[in-house]
Predict the 3D structure of the following.
Amino acid sequence: MRYKNTVLRIAGFLAGLLVLLLVLNTVFSPKRWYPEGYIQDRNARTAMLSCEEPETIDIINVGDSESGMDFNPMTIWEDKGYTALNIGCDGLTLPECYTVVKKMFRTQSPKVVLVESNLLYRSEKKRLAKSMTAEFFYDAFEGLRFHNVWKYVWKERGYRLYFKGYILNGFSNPYEGETDYMKPTEKAEDIQMMPAFWMERICSLCRKNGAEPVLWSAPSPINYHMAKHNGLQKLADKNEIRYLDCNLSVDEIGLDWSSDTLDKGDHLNCFGAEKTTAWLAGRIEESIELSDHRGEASYAGAWDPVLERYLEMKDMMKGYHAENLPQEVMDYIYNGGDFREPGF
């Protein structure tokens, strides 16, 4: 009898916990809070994905802050008419990348999944294990990921505008080091076993869903050198995917290290990101056929207002960092503008 009562108590607790988690999924749904500007932290890009119209995205980009700062979907829409989302953010882990790509395939059928390579070299075992455990629950119960939205409900909503995942930064802090940092070498800085495993899983998931995975490296003399390029090329060859290294094409991209970098060669500002994204789009379309949606009313109606706001804000924010906006810009967003990301 005692054993039976214990089992019933455990079953009752688990049932109650399941109900609570399902309630959290509803209460903290990103479809409710993101359009109103309440999700402004590093999870904002994942929340944005939930709000996009199904089957409308051609390209998705994932990775850590190098990815988040250096890939600009507005450039691709303006120049090519392709739709792209940037899900890159600070400290994104490979298990998080896998979860967001998996989530994306539930509502979208992109032809290209870009994976920026920097996180492959900064994935410690303990951090990966912790992230893997967390992502198991976040994938099943999305409300857990956004449970802290209540903090923003009781405070002022944020003023960081996301342009399909890209945070606009107009500040310039020049890189003054060596520009020939990709010196030839036969050495290869190989990818460790666990990051390689997760990259293989991401590639397999993409192929299963009809998307082409593409590995790329953002231009950054702080983070890259030729030995890393060689290690990444080996990984790309093993997985039979394309590898696009912007660091080998800085001149072709047209980057100016005196004006196009945000923080002395670590990340790019919006001017560098536009040049880099334009180059990436050109390389992508060499092997993948994408459709120009600018003449389609349903797409233009959703994307043109975002581009219009981006161009307006780019002029206003020239010389300023997104985390240190001048008062006139904040006043515009709070009073003359809109808390919400355009398009929602």
Observations:
- The first helix runs from residue 2 to 27.
- The chain has a mean pLDDT of 85.
